[in-house]
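Hi V.,

You were right to ask for the full record rather than a summary. Here it is.
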Amino acid sequence: MPCHKMLNFLYTTTTGKLLRKIFRAHWLAKCVALYMNSRFSRKRIQPFIKQHRMSMGEYIVPTGGYTSFNDFFTRKLKTGTRPIDRNPEHIVAPVDGNLCVVPHIETDTIFYIKQQAFNLEHFLKDAALARSFADGVMMIFRLAPQDYHRIHFPLDCTPQQPRVIHGLLESVNPAAFGNDAHPLLDNERHLIMLETASHGQIAMIPVGAMLVGSIVSTYTPGKNYRKGDECGYFAFGGSTVVLLFSCNSIHPIAHFVERSLQGLETAVKMGVVVTT
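Predicted structure:
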């Protein structure tokens, strides 16, 4: 696919690596966002839907159509299209995307995709918080551009104020891993702590990506939310959401773990149960 050819060029060639310094810059993301929020970008919507063979039946389409490509990109689901499991013990996927599970995250560990090194303290920028999640579970949900890009709460919780961890905007596509890029560790991200009655404290971290100019929160800090309620959304581009659970607080579904240990991701939809 053209996007994979471009990523291969940007991450594996000398010329591409030089150009990548421009592609991952925040100023370029803001410039792209200006266009994607304009009415001139509407012409890109139908070709995008056709290229990715998207079914629009479960999404809200405004009367008169979407006002811009970003309006389409941040589209909302129709009410009732994603029934949410109400068992308080079950965690659901917060987004549509490809899931990878690390069943025992350590302060330093090796990430399965192309043996990417991962440091929990660097990721959270908080040594004490990193220690609290040692030997816990990490779930990584990687979104592709054609996926639904709104983020939802994975269980009943009280979310705290997001803490912005500034960084780059590398691609989160697996093509970027294993070269000189460390997307999860280097990209801009928001750390949102979720206080829960059923599973203690959980960290939810939306991670920005190449040409993703913004991570937008739509929730009110300190307010109680139900599983499946909206948390926020990503603007244009592919992105990632990471969930961190403390040791022995959850049990991921074995199928997801087995595939992850083989270096494979599993496609999931928002609302799908991911724990037993």
